[in-house]
Amino acid sequence: MSAEEKMSVEETVKKIVTRIVRKPEVDFSPTTTFKDLDADSLDIVQILVAVEDTFDIEIQDEELQKITNMKEFLDYIQRKVAEKQTS
Predict the structure, then answer these.
(1) Active-site residue flag, 38
(2) The pLDDT of residue 85
(3) Distance (Å, rounded) from C-alpha 54 to C-alpha 35?
(4) Up-side HSE of residue 59: CA atoms within 13 Å toward CB?
(5) Alpha-carbon Rg of the chain, whole angstroms?
(6) Under the phi-then-psi rule, with left for phi > 0, alpha for psi from -120 to 50, and beta for the rest, what region is 38?
(7) What pLDDT score was predicted for residue 77?
(8) Three-state DSSP class for residue 12
(9) pLDDT at position 61, please?
(10) pLDDT tops 80 at residue 1
């Protein structure tokens, strides 16, 4: 996955998250967590569904439980998108 594609994935995920948590001025750093964004469980489910639909990927619950911050979440999404492109 090229740097340009990674930025596109990152920007798209940021747009999805900020729309769902209703915080347009969110400070999105690598260490930001869903808790930092005041995202409740319904927000998280909506984020996951929107990301899955947008990128046509499937997010595994078991793998998601290991993710603790936005950097890990973005890395995971980028990896899933790259896997889809090569299959």
Answers:
(1) no
(2) 84
(3) 23
(4) 23
(5) 12
(6) left
(7) 96
(8) helix
(9) 87
(10) no
Domains of the chain from N-terminus onward: 3-86 (1.10.1200.10)
In the block, tokens 């990152």 appear at 10
Measured CA to CA, the distance from residue 24 to residue 3 in angstroms comes to 25
Catalytic residue, chosen from 27, 36, 38, 40, is 40
3-30 pLDDT, tens digit each: 677 679 999 999 999 999 987 777 788 9
Helix (H) or strand (E) holding 53: helix 41-55
Q: For residue range 38-64, list pLDDT tens digits in order.
A: 999 999 999 999 999 999 999 988 988
What is d(CA 40, CA 81) in angstroms, rounded to the nearest whole number?
25
Distance CA 64, CA 45 (A): 11
